[in-house]
């Protein structure tokens, strides 16, 4: 478990924006530093090569003058004299066309050196304190006038060669170390930022779940996260006050409006009973009662939607069996379906337990079944079922009616939205809005799909979290 937790935390850190920014910065810095150091070394090496080449050219001019004035014998004496000087780092070799050494401090003509007069670096061997060692030199070789003899003038650049090897070996390791330390630093920075963001996300999730008393923790460091937390807390305070005010208004409306509407309806019914059924006012009173019923239904639906969206009903959630809820609601609508000549079929299912508010789920299912029956012609079919999936439990209501066009399926979930085809049918346009609010309260998912023909509405509930059982004493 500790290993899994470690890898989970590591993956979380690697996915953070802070880690990506640090990683990009480290890569840019490493590339920039590599290019800068490489350019500096390359420019320095060019300057040293140019200085070496100037010294070699100057020696070649002097030796050429000696050759022109004294011939090969005199040139050999000069080279032999210069070769005896120790510590100068100059290399000389005068040889004939067969490669036989005439004078110089090299034992043989290097194999990779040609007499084309161009500068070249080559390896050579020389004795140092009796031992034969391999060295590196840079020089120029050419044929003397007549082409019978070749002259090689060079400078020992072994120290610079070692520096180049050290540079090419050290630079990749340096870049690797920069990247490694950059990754470690990025992970530490990201972990700190992720810890602060996690606290904000946890608080936000608890607020979304309905606990409006929660506030984002402030560490007291007065940094950007503390400033963000304080602003969020101020916003939450204001939002809580506004919601409290809305709840008070809703309670007042519930008390001051719903009761008079019910009282008005009762009086209309009493008046209807007193009137002669043949009276001219009887139809008007019946229409008024129907309008009053629609007002009360609209009012009750709005209160239910507000209750679901506010999260106040979350405290009443318990473990419920969806199959039992389906059976109860289907039994309630069976007479209506039979009256309209519609087959209401409940697919058999076993126990399907979820965590939810039974009253609101029953109301949402009733709205789906009521809509299906309302728009189905005689001989239609409504099928209700519960099924388990890998992700949770699905509650499905499918009908064989006209369905809802795909482009309108998201719009019909809004309040008071009614399609043109249903304008002449009774309703408030709040049925599917209530279903959507109940789905949001239960953190479920509502899907409206084509049933070919008809509409298939599916509410996908997540699997309930297993609560730890108390140990028996």
Give structural attributes.
alpha+beta, Heat Shock Protein 90, 8 helices, 12 strands, disordered C terminus
Question: Can you put this structure into words, describing what you see?
Answer:
- By secondary structure, the protein is α+β, with helices and mostly antiparallel strands.
- The chain folds into three domains: 1-207, no CATH class; 225-310, Orthogonal Bundle (Helix Hairpins), CATH 1.10.287; 314-462, Heat Shock Protein 90 (2-Layer Sandwich), CATH 3.30.565.10.
- It has helices at 2-14, 17-83, 158-208, 224-274, 282-310, 322-339, 358-375, 431-441; strands spanning 90-96, 101-104, 116-128, 131-143, 149-156, 318-321, 343-346, 353-356, 381-388, 392-399, 445-450, 455-462.
- A five-stranded antiparallel β-sheet has the order 2-1-5-4-3. Strands 7-9-10-12-11 form a five-stranded mixed β-sheet, covered by helices on one side. Strands 6-8 form a two-stranded antiparallel ribbon.
- A hairpin with a 2-residue loop joins strand 3 (116-128) and strand 4 (131-143).
- Helix 1 (2-14) crosses helix 3 (158-208), helix 2 (17-83) packs antiparallel against helix 3 (158-208) and helix 4 (224-274) packs antiparallel against helix 5.
- The two termini are 28 Å apart.
- 20% of the residues are buried.
- The model is unreliable at 1-9 and 466-473 (pLDDT under 50).
């Amino acid at each position: 478990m500790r290993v899994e937790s470690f890898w989970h935390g590591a993956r979380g850190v690697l996915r953070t924006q802070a880690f990506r920014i640090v990683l990009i910065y480290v890569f840019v810095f490493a590339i920039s530093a590599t290019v800068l150091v490489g350019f500096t070394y390359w420019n320095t090496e060019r300057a040293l090569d140019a200085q070496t080449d100037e010294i070699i050219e100057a020696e070649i001019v002097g030796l050429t003058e000696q050759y022109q004035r004294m011939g090969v014998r005199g040139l050999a004496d000069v080279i032999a004299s210069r070769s005896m000087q120790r510590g100068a780092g100059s290399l000389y070799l005068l040889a004939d066309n067969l490669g036989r050494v005439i004078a110089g401090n090299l034992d043989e003509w290097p194999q990779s050196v040609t007499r084309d007069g161009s500068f070249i670096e080559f390896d050579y061997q020389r004795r140092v304190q009796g031992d034969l060692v391999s060295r590196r030199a840079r020089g120029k070789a050419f044929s003397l006038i007549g082409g019978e003899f070749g002259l090689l003038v060079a400078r020992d650049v072994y120290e610079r060669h070692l520096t180049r090897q050290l540079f090419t070996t050290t630079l990749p390791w340096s870049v690797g170390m920069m990247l490694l330390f950059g990754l470690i630093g990025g992970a530490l920075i990201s972990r700190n930022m992720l810890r602060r963001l996690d606290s904000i996300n946890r608080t936000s999730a608890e607020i979304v779940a309905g606990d409006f008393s929660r506030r984002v923790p402030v560490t007291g460091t007065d940094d950007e996260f503390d400033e963000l937390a304080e602003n969020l807390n101020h916003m939450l305070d204001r939002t809580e006050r506004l919601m409290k005010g809305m709840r008070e208004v809703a309670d007042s409306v519930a008390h001051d409006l719903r009761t008079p509407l019910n009282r008005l309806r009762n009086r209309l019914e009493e008046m209807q009973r007193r009137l002669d059924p043949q009276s001219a006012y009887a139809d008007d009173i019946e229409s008024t009662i129907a309008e009053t019923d629609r007002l009360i239904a609209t009012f009750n639906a709005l209160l239910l939607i507000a209750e679901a969206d506010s999260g106040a009903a979350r405290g009443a959630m318990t473990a419920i069996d969806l199959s039992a809820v389906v059976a109860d609601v289907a039994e309630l609508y069976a007479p209506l379906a039979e009256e309209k000549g519609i087959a209401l079929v409940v697919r058999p299912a076993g126990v399907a337990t979820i965590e939810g508010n039974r009253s609101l789920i029953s109301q949402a299912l009733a709205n789906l079944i009521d809509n299906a029956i309302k728009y189905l012609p005689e001989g239609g079919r409504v099928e209700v079922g519960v099924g388990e999936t890998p992700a949770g439990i699905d509650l499905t209501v499918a009908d064989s009616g006209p369905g809802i066009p795909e482009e309108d399926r998201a719009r019909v979930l809004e309040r008071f939205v009614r399609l043109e085809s249903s304008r002449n049918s009774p309703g408030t346009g709040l049925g599917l809005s209530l279903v959507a609010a109940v789905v949001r309260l239960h953190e479920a998912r509502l899907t409206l799909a084509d049933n070919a023909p008809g509409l298939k509405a599916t509410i996908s509930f997540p699997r309930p979290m297993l609560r730890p059982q108390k140990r028996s004493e």
